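$ ./design --mode recover --in tokens.txt
reading tokens...
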């Protein structure tokens, strides 16, 4: 890896520093300190056209193929969403995307790039009837990206919950949304 992200925790940071040194990666910390790049290109200086990640898609052919995706679209989206919706460090984001779904990158890098927190429900909370809504009641997110299917889990909970007053934005993608989501 070109970089590792570490907390400013007294136990985690020394381990992260050793791991970064062992693999020649730059250490970034959650408290804003930045270590110099280990003889490589500075992470901030990477071209937007440079490959950032690879994903597999069947596209219209039905046969899996690997696609190299550049930094540009993701970094553009993160900056656009932050500016357009006034997102900031006080926001609490949900992470509801599957690990193999490319919106995961949006759901991780948007909050981390602005200093916001990311909250992940345990799998059991999603599978239990009403579990996702109980998790929302506990976490009180301000920003949520979800598919309509995930939204159905959220709104299908019993109606004995307080409104989610802190939820500033619910962004939907992946399918059509219905009135119940709104």
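writing sequence...
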């Amino acid at each position: 890896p070109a970089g590792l992200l570490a907390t400013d925790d007294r136990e985690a940071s020394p381990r992260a520093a050793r791991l970064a040194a062992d693999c020649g990666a730059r250490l970034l910390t959650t408290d804003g300190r930045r270590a110099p790049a280990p003889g490589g290109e500075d992470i901030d200086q990477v071209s937007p056209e440079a490959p950032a990640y690879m994903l597999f898609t069947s596209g219209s052919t039905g046969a899996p193929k690997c696609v190299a995706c550049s930094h540009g679209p993701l970094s553009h989206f993160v900056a656009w969403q932050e500016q357009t919706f006034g997102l900031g460090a006080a926001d609490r984001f949900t992470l509801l995307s599957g690990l193999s779904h490319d919106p995961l990158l949006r759901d991780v890098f948007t909050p981390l790039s602005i200093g916001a927190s990311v909250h992940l429900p345990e799998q059991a909370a999603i599978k239990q009837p009403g579990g996702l809504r109980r998790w929302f009641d506990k976490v009180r997110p301000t920003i949520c990206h979800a598919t309509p299917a995930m939204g159905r889990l959220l709104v299908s909970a019993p109606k004995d919950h307080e409104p989610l007053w802190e939820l500033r934005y619910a962004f939907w993608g992946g399918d059509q949304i219905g009135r119940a989501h709104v």
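exit 0
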